Amino acid sequence: MRILVSNDDGIYSPGIAVLAEIASEFGSVRVVAPDVERSSAGHSITASRPLSYKPTRLAELTAYRVNGTPADCVSLGAYHWEKVDIVLSGLNLGFNLGNSIWHSGTVAAAKQAALLGLRGVALSVPAGAESAADFEPFKPWLRQVLRTVLGEVNLPLVNVNFPRHPRGIIWTRASVRRYDGKIVPAQDPAGRRLFWFTVTPIEGAEEGTDRWAMEQGWISLTPLRLDLTDAHA
Ligand code: MN
């Protein structure tokens, strides 16, 4: 099995190294990721300038860095490596829950895989993990999640979030309540007005959703689809 690993935190994020390491137990892994952090890049693509694709040292793995977006990385990765079976995106340092799916670069990389007719899985852990030790508790759970989603061959796109202390895995739906986008005014040292666009939760989570799963300590697996058409309308 050919597993392409990408992310939006950039190729030097500790999260992508952990994901690539565990994914290697399931197949042949290649890493293609942005050269700098592109979090919240959403599904943007780089169409107005050319892209580079440069070999990069990342432990014992074959890895390439791209001066583009997460979606660019998946397209270039699939172009250079024929017959990719699945794209794993992450481990993102910070949740991708509810309506943040719309602007997540992590989910966009997985979504680009689905657009190319491949399968895509986005994986996110709580913000704050930095050292290798911080990721240790997630590794057995990550193995279990990969075993589960790799077996679900009919699901083109799955969004996975890990709570800080998981107690199990459940399937959820995406929360549609307002989750983030709270604007916080501030000042720079010269007294000029600035604004922080934050990811602070705005409304409470509904039971059975991805956000609710994080509150309850469950690893959340949300199957997503590409068709946004409102069939009833
Ligand atoms: Mn990110």
Q: What report would you give on this structure?
A:
The chain is α/β, with parallel strands linked by helices and 233 residues long. The chain is built from six helices and eleven strands. Helix 1 links the parallel strand 1 and strand 2. Helix 1 crosses helix 5 and helix 2 packs parallel to helix 3. The longest helix has 13 residues. The radius of gyration is 17 Å and the shape is globular. It starts with a strand and ends in a 10-residue tail after the last strand. The mean pLDDT is 95. Manganese (II) ion (MN) binds next to helix 3.
Choose one word for the global shape.
globular
Averaged pLDDT: 95
Would you identify the regions where 5 or more consecutive residues have pLDDT less than 50? none
The chain-level structural class is: alpha/beta
Biggest β-sheet: strands ordered side by side in the sheet:
3-4-2-1-5-6-7-11-8
Largest sheet: 9 strands, mixed
Helix fraction? 10-25%
What is the H/E string?
A: EHEEEHEHEHHEEEEHE
Per DSSP E runs of 2 or more residues, the count of β-strands stands at 11
Distinct ligand kinds:
manganese (II) ion
Fraction of residues in β-strands: 25-35%
Please state the CA-atom Rg, rounded to the nearest Å: 17 Å
Report how far the terminal alpha carbons are from each other. 40 Å
Number of H- or I-type helical stretches: 6
